[in-house]
């Protein structure tokens, strides 16, 4: 393979030199294309292995992509922030996720199965997180059972609550009455001098 920067024989015609340079670039492009095709082929195999998992995702969840993109470095996109790409050795699968602190590696292996298992786990976690968010945060099943057991004793608790309500009402009424009496007593004490003078000045 001739390099594009290889020295050109001055005795050659310009057209021959151009042809040689084009051939050199073509050879280099073939290598790049071969690498890209090798990457895509391995990612297609991984996507085929994960196809049953992708098919089981609820139809109303549109935040997953599950597509192999083209380009200089093909990627199997899982969602907007995570994807699988091949390492520089063209044999290592790398499951990556973009976060606020940078890109992190969720799984990395030359074997397909560990990475497929990691992707499956990731998809399951996203589905469960979405379900919990839609339900407003669900307690564990054990806590739910305990809550059901407490519910069996609900009638006595309700009756007790009603009794406490009446007691609170009566207590409040008593406080109002006591306040009224205290107010009358204070008023009488303040006006006692006037009442005494009126009694003394009153003549039949």
Describe the SSE topology.
Blueprint: H1 14-56, E1 64-69, E2 75-79, E3 82-86, E4 93-99, E5 102-109, H2 112-134, H3 141-152, H4 154-190, H5 192-201
Antiparallel strand pairs: 1-2, 2-3, 3-4, 4-5
Helix pairs in contact: 1-2
Quickly describe the structure.
The protein is α+β, with helices and mostly antiparallel strands. The protein is built from 5 helices and 5 strands; from the N terminus they run αβββββαααα.
Keywords:
204 residues; alpha+beta; 5-stranded antiparallel beta sheet; 61% helix; 15% strand; rod-shaped
Describe the structure.
The chain has helices at residues 14-56, 112-134, 141-152, 154-190, 192-201, and strands spanning 64-69, 75-79, 82-86, 93-99, 102-109. It has 204 residues and is an alpha+beta fold. Strands 1-2-3-4-5 form a five-stranded antiparallel beta sheet. The termini are far apart.
- Which ranges are low-confidence, i.e. pLDDT below 50, for 5 or more consecutive residues? 140-155
Number of strands: 5
Number of helices: 5
> Helix content range of the residues, please?
55-70%
Distance linking N and C termini: 141 Å
Order of secondary-structure elements = HEEEEEHHHH
- Chain-averaged pLDDT: 75
How can the largest sheet be summarized?
5 strands, antiparallel
Taken from the alpha-carbon principal axes, the silhouette is rod-shaped
Strand content: 15-25%
Return the structural class. Answer: alpha+beta
Biggest sheet, spatial arrangement of strands:
1-2-3-4-5
């Amino acid at each position: 393979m001739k390099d594009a920067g290889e020295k050109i024989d001055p005795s050659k015609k310009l057209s021959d030199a151009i042809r040689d340079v084009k051939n050199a670039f073509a050879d280099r492009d073939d290598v790049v294309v071969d690498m890209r095709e090798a990457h895509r082929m391995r990612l297609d195999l991984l996507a085929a292995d994960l196809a049953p998992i992708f098919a089981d995702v609820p139809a109303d969840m549109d935040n997953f992509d599950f597509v192999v993109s083209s380009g200089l470095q093909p990627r199997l996109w899982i969602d907007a922030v995570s994807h699988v790409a091949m390492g520089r050795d063209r044999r290592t699968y790398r499951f990556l996720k973009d976060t606020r602190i940078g890109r992190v590696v969720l799984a990395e292996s030359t074997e397909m199965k560990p990475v497929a298992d990691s992707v499956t786990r990731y998809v399951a976690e996203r589905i469960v997180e979405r379900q919990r968010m839609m339900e407003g945060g669900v307690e564990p099943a054990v806590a739910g059972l305990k809550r059901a057991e407490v519910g069996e004793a609900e009638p006595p608790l309700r009756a007790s609550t009603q009794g406490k309500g009446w007691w609170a009402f009566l207590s409040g009424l008593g406080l109002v009455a006591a306040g009224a009496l205290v107010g009358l007593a204070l008023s009488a004490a303040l006006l006692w001098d006037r009442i005494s003078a009126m009694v003394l000045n009153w003549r039949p």
